[in-house]
Amino acid sequence: MKRIYVYLAALIFTGVVLTGCKESSVNPVAESGDSAIIKTVIASDSSTMSFDSNYDEEGILQDILGKSSATIRPIKVARKVTGITRNVSTQVINDTAYATMTATVTARLIIAASTDADSTIDTTITKNYTSELKRNYILVKRNNQNDSTRWKMIAYSLPSGKTTGSTLTIRKLTATFGNNQTFTLEDPLAYYLTRGWGRWRDIPQINKNEPVTLQVEVVAPTDDANFVTMTFGADFRGQNRLKKKLDLVSVSSISPGQYLLVYETQITSHRIAGFFHAVLDVMTEDSVTDDSQPVVSTYWGFPYIIKL
Known about the structure:
Number of helices: 3
Strand content: over 45%
CATH architecture: Distorted Sandwich
């Protein structure tokens, strides 16, 4: 899955947090033909495809199957998306449509690992898994009857996904930039970006080669360290992708059977200007160190801009 590369000068949407609206004239099912049009608008939007190109880490590892070992030491870990099926439910209120996209993502977790104490890769483990990704959209009807342009997207939430039965919860993501400004995300599905001319407000704007400190709070049923990574920087061809593992810095008990784990790392922004998506993925350590255990994952996506 590739995404459309958009330079900052050509961007036509601005980030804001939307509040609720008063409902009237509710139609639970969109008008005839509208559902298909809305689904097409969502699937072809650059914000949808930009997330796809960073969640799919094809190219980080060669997809080569190796021998199996119950205890492995991961050297490189990558996701390879094998399919995405999107379903869109729509509610029309007057000339506004509120849509929720639920995507079933099938993928393979590819682990290049060592069975010895050194860092020599001598085995590759592949685990198939399925996750569910959700995202909300708001569209308005134009004053024309052209099927392909009848609906216009005006806002969309950030994406949030997890594997079935995931016991991991991302509580907060905080990014601190070189100028000490911060970006905080607590609920991707409630954080909306709107399209329209004007200033960017809520999407982080980062200088080229700028240091960024990331802090992630995770709630988990045990105090065991998780495998937490940030993937970012992929262009419209899926190239220039970078990935960084976060380090566990603190653990505390917040209730019986509930622990708060805090992870941090520092990254440096890349040199290509434009609009990008980053993907935060939290997996259990067993997902990448034990070939007999399933993939357990919770992940978020969020956009950022590299300034011209």
